Amino acid sequence: MTRIKTGYDRRRILQGMAGGVAAAGGMTLFGPAVHAAKTIKIGYVSPKSGPLAAFAEADDFVLGEFRKAVKDGLKLGSQVYQVEIITKDSQSNPNRAAEVTKELITRDNVGLVLVGATPETNNPVSTQCELEQIPCISSVAPWQTNFIARQANPGDPKSWKPFDYTFHYFWGLEDVIGVFTGMWNQVATNKSVGALFPNDGDGNAWGDKVVGFPPVLAKQGFTLTDPGRFQNLTDDFSAQISAFRGANAEIVTGVVIPPDFTTFWNQSQQKGYKPKVVSVAKALLFPTTVQALGKSGHNISTEVWWTPSHPYKSSLTGISAADLAKGYEQASGKQWTQPIGFVHSLFEVAVDSLKRAQDPSDGAALAKAIGATKLDTVVGPIAFGSDKVPPFAAKNIAKTPLVGGQWRLEGDKYKIVVTENGQAPQIPVGGKMQLLS
After folding, report:
1. Is the pLDDT confidence value at 97 over 50?
2. Alpha-carbon separation of residue 398 from 72, 172, 185, 230, 344 (angstroms)
3. pLDDT of residue 6 exceeding 80
């Protein structure tokens, strides 16, 4: 890669970027701040406002807990380093995400950037970091949308190249397709599927005729009706509903932002379109979205990447998934949400990488340490270079487990019930798949 001249001394910026922590239950990991001589600056970008804001709902809690954990500094050898987290709001806008990342690097002098909230946030942040040669760890988007979509020519696999400074962990399209079809095969339908694929990073990947849903569903005997891409925040889904009714689609799938699914579902109810199964990603991750649907949200299904019942604990603090979720609910008065675990895990990977970096003050050394990560976290094992990822992406991508579940109304609250764990049997199921009532 050609080095980008930015007019500032990168080594001066990265000076002091060192740290480490040994995870052990009940062990004191940090030393007194009085000995701290340098500061580790970590940038964190998320959509605190705009249509993707649900992904950042738990940020304040998770960041607050991390700051408490490192309030006395982060110890490496005989030295203690202060840790400063600098946050930026992408406003759910890709251009803004790139702008604030540039600010973090050139003005705030961070030496590491963390991000985890859909391709519209992750990709511009990762791209900016790669250009500026600043290590970046991202999550919360199918890996194809991060690795393939950021290539110079996404349509030409022969031209794809690994990245030097940017690393991403999450599940892939192959996993969510497996989870969704696993749920659908538990119930009786005509296998006719209507697709809601918007004109964004997720929608274009899910609808791709090579790596997306179409070829896999065809092989499994499903018929897919895809009316084409639509813009996010659309207010009229008449065309999609008409196409689904015309195809007698008893299953609806897709990957849409929360307000768009609410609009689609309300209009479907008004027009009398009532599929037997709805499995939609992104929008249905959040209890607030389902709660807004009233009783019509009962048994709607979604992918499940993290729950309090996941059998994992933090490498940083030792807290279990159950206790992390409980802490959020007690602090916020709200139901837990899936991004809690993944935002927490970003800081786990960051601290572990700093600990292992041969020279944490050097960006290339830190990037090398990130790429060598093999860590058990609150969202499960994270290991780059694994054979679970295609060889062309293994350097930069690690996969985390995925299951599927349904939202069920219990009293006046919706709760997620895991109904499909074929790809991750270590995560317990709570019931069998049911048709929409």
Report:
1. yes
2. 31, 10, 28, 30, 16
3. no
Instruction: Classify each residue of 119-148 as buried b or exposed e, where b means 16 or more C-beta atoms within 10 Å of its C-beta.
Output: bbbbbbbbbbbbbbbbbbbbbbbbbbbbbb
Strands 397-398 and 166-169: parallel
Average pLDDT value over all residues in the chain? 89
Beta strands in 104-191 (DSSP E): 112-115, 136-139, 166-169
Tokens of 116: 């985890």
Chain-centroid distance of CA 387 in Å reads: 21
CA dihedral 325, 329, 330, 333 (to 10 degrees): 170
Indicate the length of the chain as a whole number.
437
Q: What is the pTM of this model?
A: 0.87
Considering only CA atoms, which of 385, 372, 384, 379 is closest in space to residue 401? 379
Query: What is the 8-class DSSP label of residue 4?
Result: P
Residue 35 to residue 240: CA distance in whole angstroms: 62
Question: DSSP code of 337?
Answer: -
| Contact in structure between 276 and 189 (CB atoms under 8 Å) | yes
**pLDDT band with cut points at 50, 70 and 90 for residue 76:** low
Contact 115, 44 (CB under 8 A): yes
Does residue 94 carry a pLDDT above 90? yes
The more confident residue out of 77 and 64 is 64
Query: DSSP characters for 50-66?
Result: STTGGGGTTHHHHHHHH
Say which amino acid occupies 18: A
The per-residue pLDDT for range 378-419, each reduced to its tens digit, is 999 999 999 899 999 999 999 999 999 999 999 889 999 999
d(CA 44, CA 51): 19
Q: CA-to-CA distance for 426 and 431, rounded, in angstroms? A: 15
- List pLDDT tens digits, range 195-251: 999 998 889 989 988 888 999 999 999 999 999 999 999 999 999 999 999 999 999
4 pLDDT more than 80: no
User: Among candidates 165, 163, 177, 162, which has minimal Cα distance to 137?
Assistant: 165
Whole-number Å distance between alpha carbons of 433 and 437? 12
